[in-house]
Amino acid sequence: MVTAVAYRLAAQHAERRRILDTLSLSRxxxxxxxxxxxxxxxxxxxxxxxxxxxxxxxxxxxxxxxDGTEHGDFLALDLGGSSFRVLLxxxxxxxxxxxxxxxxxxxxxxxxxxGTGEELFNHIVCCISDFLEYMGMRGASLPLGFTFSxxxxxxxxxxxxxxRWTKGFKASDCVGKNVVTLLKxxxxxxxxxxxxFVAVVNDTVGTMMTCGYEDPKCEVGLIxxxxxxxxxxxxxxxxxxxxxxxGRMCVNVEWGAFGDNGELDDFCTEFDRSVDxxxxxxxxxxxxxxxxxxxxxEIVRNVLVDFTTKGLLFRGKMSExxxxxxxxxxxxxxxxxxxxxxxxxxxxILQHLGLTGxxxxxxxxxxxxxxxxxxxxxxxxxxxxxxVVDKIRQNRNLxxxxxxxxxxxxLYKTHPHFSSIMQETLQDLAPQCHVTFLKSEDGSGKGAAxxxxxxxxxxxxxxx
Length: 464
Ligand code: GLC
Known about the structure:
This protein has helices at residues 2-22, 27-45, 110-113, 117-135, 179-190, 203-214, 270-277, 288-291, 293-309, 330-336, 343-352, 360-395, 410-414, 418-429, 443-457, and strands at 58-59, 72-79, 83-92, 98-107, 143-148, 152-153, 161-162, 196-201, 218-224, 228-235, 248-252, 401-408, 433-439. The strands form three sheets. It has a six-stranded mixed β-sheet with strand order 1-11-10-9-12-13. Helix 6 (203-214) packs across helix 15 (443-457) and helix 9 packs antiparallel against helix 12. By secondary structure, it is of the alpha/beta class. It is globular. The protein has a domain at 60-214 and 442-453: Nucleotidyltransferase, domain 5 (2-Layer Sandwich). Helices cover 43% and strands 17% of the residues. The protein has 15 helices and 13 strands. The structure holds alpha-D-glucopyranose.
């Protein structure tokens, strides 16, 4: 009898281990991810292969980082996460780089994110109108930077043709259109005020610029939030999709789409496939779905459901809540991962998920699942970043590169281990690069204003 129980426990333990092992990546696998990312980045830059590649390497028309002389009042809009923000940014040049920001945050209901484009842009214009009213600024036509954190094809700074929606957005009739025109049309429909558009900016670029304001060595921008993405300064002569060979331009990598041509199939688990299949955009943004805040909790939930179905967790008792998509938010993952969090607190999170009566062993296992999923995300992100910094190093024919990465995003900022694991991986996979990380304070908003400021300074020739 005792042997039978012991045998069953050992078998259960082995089965849990086997499943968790599918979620961990070896050094060789991570090196392979870096290699494939480098290859896709090259293909994205090349005229011949650009169309077929998953990583789009989009020119941003930002050619230099700020020099501290930027000055003036700017409006900035920030769309791309779970909310929409309107900001008034006051830049004062001089030694202290004084920046004063006033902002209001507006929610975007899910129906609006996924309704018609007209509804979405009408909603945005209503928020802007409210902000101008609130600030007593109706009628002031300040230069405006629009942080629009989705893949856009730009042929100049103040134009962005939406290539596809990512994250939770799905508004109809927007893909293939210039988002500045869509917003201008909505402003005209409202007939209350005018806007003076100067720049469309990806959040990665805004983050790089904001950190570049503090540290001129900042030539990479990284976001690990609802979605994930990076940008960096590339040599113009390598960007075959652009005319001109002189100097550098910031390229929006759009690395979230890495894997969409099968580059990550070897490393995906059944849980990743299920998260992908049940998402808004199956088959798309495969790398992002293994890394970012919108998906990590959902991966954990899928593992927990599998464990429970197999009788390896919660004594095999499934809760209805655990079966619902999105219930395990990534913020729980960050909370559970805190080192000093008592098992009692994990249990109360589980209770919130309708998992009453969980044992201490259950809590330990849930913590382990969160650990494995978070670690893999941070390592994958580190492997991608290794490809980016090594590319910069090779571009410059350097044996050693010293570079700063500006980072933003809730997952990066709130997960207790993400940044350290990512940096460890990066160091291991790109040993010839010395990388410093600078957390950006309000990268998207301030960055849009800075880019707008630089553009105004150089008299907006359509390029910075
Ligand atoms: C998604 C978007 C990308 C953005 C990233 C982070 O991947 O496609 O443009 O930078 O999310 O917000």
